[in-house]
Amino acid sequence: MKTIGYIGLGKMGMNMVYRLNEMNWRVVAYNRSPEPRHQAANQGIVTVDSISGLVQKIDEPRIIWVMVSHESVDAVLDELAPLLSKGDVIIDGGNSLYKETIRRAKVIESKGIHFLDVGTSGGPSGARHGACCMIGGDESIFKKYEELFKDISAKDGYAYLGKHGAGHFVKMVHNGIEYGMMQSIGEGFEVMRKSEFSLDLKKIADLYNHKSVIESRLVGWLKDAYEKFGENLEEISGSIAHSGEGKWTVETAKELGVAMPIIEKSFKFRVQSKKKPSYIGKVVSALRNMFGGHEVSHKP
Predict the structure, then answer these.
(1) Does residue 171 carry a catalytic annotation?
(2) Helix count (H) and strand count (E) of the chain?
(3) Shortest CA distance to 133 belongs to which of 111, 115, 148, 114?
(4) Tens digit of pLDDT for each residue in 240-264?
(5) What is the DSSP letter of 296?
(6) Residue 227 catalytic?
(7) Bridge partners for 137 per DSSP
(8) Which candidate in 2, 6, 92, 126 could, as Cys together with 29 as Cys, close a disulfide (CB 3.0–4.6 Å)?
């Protein structure tokens, strides 16, 4: 039976573990806090209470998928790598800065352990029903374990993109583009909200998503957000949380001499929204909640 070790049972990790289990993988899962372990165990997943216990339950050559925050990756790898054998594979499926991924790959592969970086998009729903996976590392290792990526991805939803760091680099840029797209949707819908026409914004979001040029999952999620929270989005904060990927994209563009006014301004808008909440911020926050399950504060 196909076997994989899995570290990190957050919203993405838990759903991916469920999908792997349904795709006939034997999953051995670990999470630092016990509650997610108990939840996974109740669904028939093999769980352990330590990283060493996880390694012991998997035969060589092992595949270990790490799905933790980028701040926690080094600590996990420092504990995990000494327990593995030559020929084992570590996959970082989280949102790590590609430069850190390149550094980590050199260290891990110097020990004879293979390392792949996989940028994973689609939110918790994608993790459960088929994600989009952007893969970097040794192409021969990707090909050896391609069945894994086929099993966790939507149809045609994975691709090998190049050497170490390529997967996380492409995912970083993806998230930067996402910043700009969400910002433009928020701006457009605030203009309509303030117009003289008393427009039905939920109806418009639904209309846009029927063969218009801007038809998209984001516009569909906005319609769902209006249904869930109402058009005034009163329960949603106008201050937008932000993670590292938007900042990293802007910084990388500057290093490469690429002008990025839209993404840079959308990132700065998020930073400034903490002090200047707005309806645009409410729209973006609502979208983050709908596709990523991100917590959204009540109005400040």
Answers:
(1) yes
(2) 14, 8
(3) 148
(4) 988 789 999 999 999 999 999 999 9
(5) -
(6) no
(7) 116
(8) 6
